[in-house]
Amino acid sequence: MVRRTGITGRGGVGLAAWEFGEPPKGADASEEADGEGRPGVLLLHGLMGRAAHWADTARWLAGRFRAVSLDQRGHGRSDKPPSGPFDRDAFVADAEAAVERLGLAPVVLIGHAMGALTAWQLAARRPDLVSAVVICDMRASALGADTQREWEEWFHSWPLPFATLGDVRRWFGEEDPTLDRPRPARGDFFTEVMAEGEDGWVPAFDRGQMLAAREGWVHDAHWEELSQVRCPALVVRGIDGELGRAEAHEMVRVLPRGEYADIPDAGHLAHLERPAEWRELVGPFLARATGGVTPG
User: Any residues with CB less than 8 A from the CB of 69 and at least 6 apart, and which?
Assistant: First the structure.
């Protein structure tokens, strides 16, 4: 079962949270968490993603954890405010609101890319709310202004509109010139974030808003906040992903209670490309971080 809950984020932005598993009937959100006695987990997707990208992980967790996936502002079923804001403070405040509204604390935060940055920033700012963090393929260093220009050019290269979802899957998974090799999971990722318009399939998000969200790590590094994460933290990278090995090890060194893991033959979407290996790494970490609670 999956259940949608509406949450109000920073500035009144409406957010959609998706809870996996069967909650007790007749209880409010905080009573559910206390009554079941299951640790809370909040799953945060990356840029252009949506809560549904965490469905397999959430279902795996739901037997032993209270697993919730959040559509972040500008994504999925959450509001896409024309004037934003899409800065780091807004994303972190939204995640904080979700944890408090749903009674998930002390919560395990599992984030991919942008969602991982949100996770460690919230853990640094509100250590009372967070018990552990999983960081999947996100850099702590600033990416540089040139990457923003490259992304704008990449957005303009999309052959919109797509006639079918099969065309979406094929272009993003095989034909995109930025690919190093075919990546079927990437094609699947983008089929989940398209909407059917009058002329065909187009992004369900605003590409300008995605560029605005990227500003938060294009120009700014986030090493200081990483060093303030006092809870257990696992840094996971796909061997062929965007987070390099040297930087990942430096992140683990900076984290007071950091651990490192990598997934061979995986890229940026490591958790989607190699789900079995992802679970094999994350499961033991969660058991250590939560006093023996294991997923599955």
Answer: 17, 18, 20, 42, 43, 44, 45, 51, 52, 54, 55, 58
**CA 168, chain centre distance (Å):** 22
Nearest CA-CA partner of 136 in 153, 151, 124, 118: 118
Distance CA 211, CA 81 (A): 14
Residue type, 286: L
User: Which amino acid, 266?
Assistant: A
91-104: per-residue pLDDT in tens? 999 999 999 999 99
Cα separation, 13 vs 28, in Å, equals 22
Count the Cβ atoms, other than its own, within 10 Å of residue 24. Answer: 9
Hey, which residues does 20 pair with through a beta bridge?
2, 67
Rg (CA), the chain: 18
Residue 130 pLDDT > 70:
yes
Quick check: 249 and 260 in contact, CB under 8 A?
yes
| Predicted confidence (pLDDT) per residue in 275-292, tens digit | 999 999 999 999 999 988
**CA separation (Å) from 119 to 58, 96, 211, 275?**
16, 10, 20, 20
Average pLDDT over residues 143-147: 96
Can you give the pTM of this predicted structure?
0.95
DSSP 8-state code for residue 39: P
CB 33, CB 23: distance < 8 Å? no
Q: What is d(CA 49, CA 39) in angstroms, rounded to the nearest whole number?
A: 25
